[in-house]
Write a structure and sequence with these properties.
Elements lengths: L29 H19 L4 H12 L9 E2 L5 E5 L8 E5 L1 H4 L7 E5 H8 L3 E8 L5 E8 L5 E7 L4 E2 L5 E5 L3 E5 L2 E5 L15 E6 L8 E5 L7 E7 L5 E11 L2 E8 L2 E4 L6 E7 L2 E6 L3 E3 L2 E3 L4 E5 H6 L7 E4 L5 E8 L4 E7 L2 E10 L2 E6 L7 E8 L4 E7 L6 E6 L4 E7 L10 E8 L5 E8 L11 E4 L15 H5 L6 E5 L9 H5 L7 H16 L8 E6 L1 H12 L6 E5 L18 H4 L5 H7 L17 E6 L8 H12 L5 E5 L10 H20 L1
Parallel strand pairs: 34-35, 34-36, 36-37, 37-38, 38-39
Antiparallel strand pairs: 1-2, 2-3, 3-4, 5-6, 6-7, 7-8, 7-9, 10-11, 11-12, 12-13, 14-15, 15-16, 16-17, 18-19, 19-22, 20-21, 22-23, 24-25, 25-26, 26-27, 28-29, 29-30, 30-31, 32-33, 33-35
Length: 691
């Protein structure tokens, strides 16, 4: 468990005396926004004046607004298929529905449920739809709306049948946190309840029970974590029939560690589980657990990344004494990747050497039985919508050069039908994909995918865009390149995706071997892949660019500050960058489990050597980076990119900076703005790597 902030031993955090750009951490101060507008104008003047900009923007917008892209859906509580759709007529989007039979046709008959554009216009807000939490088979849902794309949202009760917000219904003001339905008139609420109810990471740690018609201030407290948790909350544990089987609470001890408790006899019983384990679901009268570290129960040890089960009734009666059984354990280079529970079975997606597979699990006659689902091979396979009223679910299948396909699977007949396919957005004739490996600084082999344009020469002349992530056990997987194919590959560029330690491509240990004191391994892996591309004469530093967002933005920042000689372009999107103050900015304190706490001397010693902001030395030459942030990003916060750009300006270094003033960490902008951002990035890449 990581040290709580209150236990920090060393408070040597840079302040205004040593950092002249701290004022840019004020997201919406007049001074900061004036600086942003000036930087945006400078970047737009340089890039939009390029004669290729309008063509690139039009190509991107045509893809984003395409009517024949796949309308991905979810199974609604009313048996209908729900889709959220954005296009040029609906830039903020519409929530719409159709029947399954209609959805399977080439031209589904859609019925609009909620028009976010109309709502935003009527209320004068930049609403971004953030999903719905619905109660069983009723039309009642809590709809999440974010003003400008922030993570924090407003929750409002909505009736999907009438298409109207419920008069005098449940409404929760803007906050982090969520809700769960207990019954039609009762919510379990984890929100900002005022002073002393948020953690240092700005997440709720108090959960209350709120009854319809009562004041939220009178809601009964049900669970309370601790202020030094990352977050904490409680929720009803439901089975695949949507029935509540237990009340469960958790404390987020770090970003990667949780402590669970079960409500029993009006008291909370702490569960004896590894901190890197969690509840996975209920099927066939069994409760399932997933563990990211070895779990010893009695004389049996379940390996990391395994699925473990216990009899549900026995577990409810004696949560720490109920017998545990192994459901599944990973083979070499395998890991779980997504799951769904239907009315009959558990389905688990797998990565097998970064290739997709799927398994079906059932508990039959006292034993677990698994069978492979016959999904397409040598592709990325992800589990999509699933139905808890039938044994039906969907799989999305994709790769770099083939448009995505959507399959409907009937678990009773094992029939897999392709029901949708995306169009081709670029000509992939003659292009190919190769999986290669680089050797990192400590000798570890790091796999990466190379997408080669038609006629690529191995003479170092090919412009290459290298991307990666390498954090939080999140895998980066092959998927149809779409806009990248049209705007970059079709113009002769190559694309590389690196599978770095710190990510989740090969299971929990692939992640855990490159966090905290070992985080430099992630940066070493990325640099090793870049060097391997040069050593193989696939490209050369003058033609090599890198791109990443969020943790990937930190990745790109460490790469171009540690090896500025290796790159000539770096797109640094919504990044972390100042790692000596990251815990003070946005929700940075929640990621101490990944990086460490710079207030503690020992941990600062891990972080300071790679923190990119501190490496922007005026006596070094850097490639010209392009920083992209969002004003509404309340997660990583635009201050990281702002301060990096301002420091480079003070040092006399060349750079570009653009801040999207509407849209948060995950986007939230309309397609017109998305197309503009893509065009700006690709003009920059072409000028840096191709001209």
């Amino acid at each position: 468990m990581t040290a709580a902030p209150s236990q920090a031993q060393d408070s040597h955090v840079p302040g205004p005396d040593s950092d002249p750009f701290i004022w840019l951490e004020e997201a919406r101060s007049d001074r900061a926004l004036d600086w942003v507008r000036a930087e945006n104008a400078r970047t737009e003047t340089e890039l939009t004046s390029d004669p290729r900009f309008e063509t690139l923007k039009a190509e991107a917008l045509a893809i984003l607004d395409s009517d024949d892209r796949i309308p991905y859906v979810s199974f609604g509580p009313d048996g209908m298929m729900y889709n959220f759709w954005q296009d040029k007529e609906n830039p903020k989007g519409i929530l719409r529905r159709t029947s399954l039979a209609s959805y399977r046709s080439d031209n589904p008959a859609w019925e609009t449920v909620l028009d976010v554009d109309a709502l935003a216009a009527a209320e004068g807000r930049e609403w971004v739809y953030g999903g719905s939490t619905c109660y069983k088979d009723t039309p009642l849902c809590m709809v999440a709306l974010s003003d400008g794309g922030k993570d924090a949202n407003v929750l409002r009760e909505f009736n999907r049948k009438t298409g109207q917000f419920v008069e005098n219904g449940f409404v929760l003001a803007e906050s982090q946190g969520g809700v769960s339905w207990i019954d039609e008139n009762t919510l379990m609420v984890s929100r900002d309840f005022g002073e002393g109810t948020l953690t240092e990471s700005q997440y709720p740690f108090v959960t209350k029970i709120w009854t319809r018609g009562s004041d939220l201030a009178d809601a009964q407290e049900f669970y309370r974590g601790a202020p030094n948790d990352v977050s904490a909350g409680a929720y009803p544990l439901r089975d695949n029939k949507d029935e509540i089987q237990a009340m469960v609470a958790y404390r987020g001890l770090s970003f990667h560690e949780r402590q669970y408790a079960l409500r029993k006899d009006d008291a909370w019983v702490t569960l004896n589980m590894p901190k890197k384990a969690g509840l996975f679901g209920i099927i066939d009268g069994q409760i399932l657990f997933s563990t990211d570290e070895d779990w010893t129960v009695g004389e049996q040890t379940f390996p990391a990344d395994a699925l473990v089960a216990a009899d549900l009734e026995a577990w409810k009666a004696d949560p720490n004494g109920a017998a545990k059984t192994l459901v599944w354990a990973p083979g070499d280079r395998q890991t779980k990747q997504g799951a769904a529970i239907t009315s009959e079975s558990l389905y688990v997606g797998l990565l097998d050497n970064v290739r997709g597979k799927a398994l079906k699990f059932d508990f039959v006659d006292g034993a677990w039985v698994s069978s492979a689902v016959d999904v397409p091979r040598n592709a990325t396979v992800s589990i999509g919508a699933s139905d808890d009223k039938s044994d039906t679910l969907m799989f999305n299948v994709t790769d770099f050069l083939s448009p995505s396909r959507l399959y409907l699977y009937d678990g009773q007949t094992a029939q897999l039908d392709q029901i949708k396919s995306a169009p081709s957005y670029f000509d992939a004739a003659g292009m190919s994909v190769e999986q290669l490996e680089a050797t990192s600084a400590d000798g570890t082999r790091i796999p990466y995918f190379l997408v080669k344009p038609d006629g690529m020469k191995m003479d170092g002349s090919t412009p290459v865009l290298l991307s990666g992530y390498g954090g939080f056990q999140v895998p980066r997987l092959p998927s149809y390149l779409g806009t990248t194919g049209k705007l970059w590959l079709a113009r002769g560029g190559a694309y590389v995706l690196a599978n770095l330690r710190g990510g989740g491509e090969f299971g929990p240990m692939w992640h855990q071997t490159a966090i905290r004191e070992n985080k430099q391994r992630t940066w070493d892996d990325f640099i090793a892949v870049a060097q391997d591309l040069v050593d193989r004469d696939i490209t050369s530093p003058a033609h090599l660019g890198i791109q990443g967002g969020s943790q990937g933005g930190l990745l790109v920042g460490t790469a171009f500050t540690q090896r500025p000689d290796l790159f000539d372009a770096a797109i640094v999107q919504i990044p972390l960058f100042d790692m000596l103050r990251y815990h003070e900015i946005g929700r940075g304190a929640s990621w101490i489990g990944e990086y460490g706490d710079p207030r503690i001397a020992e941990q600062r010693a891990w972080i300071e050597p790679y923190s990119p902001y501190q490496k922007l030395d005026e006596d070094r030459d850097f490639p010209k980076p392009f920083f992209i942030t969002s004003t509404a990003d309340d997660r990583t916060h635009p201050a990281h990119g702002r301060k990096a750009a301002a420091k480079m300006a003070a040092n006399g270094d060349d750079y570009l900076y653009y801040e999207d003033m509407v849209g948060g960490h995950s986007g939230g902008v309309d397609n017109e703005q998305r197309a503009k951002l893509l065009a700006l990035q690709n003009v920059y890449l072409i000028k840096q790597l191709m001209d």
